[in-house]
Amino acid sequence: RAKASLTTDVCFYEEEMDKAVRERRRLVQQLREALDQDQFSLNWQVQASAETGEVTGYEVLLRWIQPDGTFVSPAEFIPLAEESGLILPIGEWVLRKACAEAALWEAPYKIAVNLSPIQLGHVDLPRLVHQILMETGLAPHRLELEITETAMIADLDRTTHILRQLKLLGVSIAMDDFGTGYSSLSTLRAFPFDKIKLDRSFMSELDGGPQSAAIIRAVLALGESLDIPVLAEGVETLEQLSFLRDQGCDEVQGYLLGRPKPVADSQLQDEALTMWNGEKIVFIAEAA
Ligand code: C2E
Ligand code: MG
Ligand code: MG
Ligand code: MG
């Protein structure tokens, strides 16, 4: 009996695996069509100075809406795009589209574009970025490229060489999701990043205990001593914003300031604005 049930389990497992593999194949096929059929669009999420609330820039986030209206999260399709190699044409599309849009804005805000490690492994990247800047007329200092440390792990020498070439073009390089990987610190040593983006997991755990607060303080101190500005991701509450301001954090980004939107609008969300308009004192007094 035990044996029979084991066999059933194995069959069930194989069936599930099959299903998962087929589902993935289907998604890759759809992803392949998405670019040709114009199913991608860009969202913009505001970034601001923690001290003054002034808008400093926008992060570009890719959106995929299928013809039937289904929204697929980048957390789901970016890994698939990476495995299938489609990230190269998709990433190029994002870069070109983002630069072209931002070049038309009246206010010359900075834009931050996410790069996949696969794109970095591609030797032509500095040339591609240069070409897109020329084509779109975007001033190089307005472009910031975000990379995660996974990009650095594969081939450190090669990656830092490519990053240096990119910096020579006048663009800046931010380290994304700082603190989540295995070697965040040695990555910082390997290359002079222009910005550290502290991962939003530290923000969401801020209320959970003293550890996250201590880590955030330590990262801010690290940024200070390395002379690298720190941006905190995932700021959702006034309490978090207040804490970050008190600790001398440079920039903030998160739902409190604004959700990612199809159009970059320079209006911060009301709650955050209130904070910067000097009502912080009232807010703290109320809490006491
Ligand atoms: P990321 O680069 O760390 O981007 C920030 C993510 O956090 C975005 O998720 C954003 O919507 C979300 N977020 C922002 N503020 C808050 C907040 O206050 N609370 C919470 N809970 N979340 C917040 P999104 O748009 O789903 O993107 C997920 C990831 O997909 C990005 O993480 C990035 O790694 C990747 N991605 C997005 N667009 C691109 C792209 O064009 N190219 C590449 N290579 N990756 C991309
Ligand atoms: Mg990012
Ligand atoms: Mg991030
Ligand atoms: Mg992230």
TrEMBL record:
Segments forming domain EAL: 24-274
Assigned keywords, A-Z: Membrane, Transmembrane, Transmembrane helix
Listed name of the protein: EAL domain-containing protein
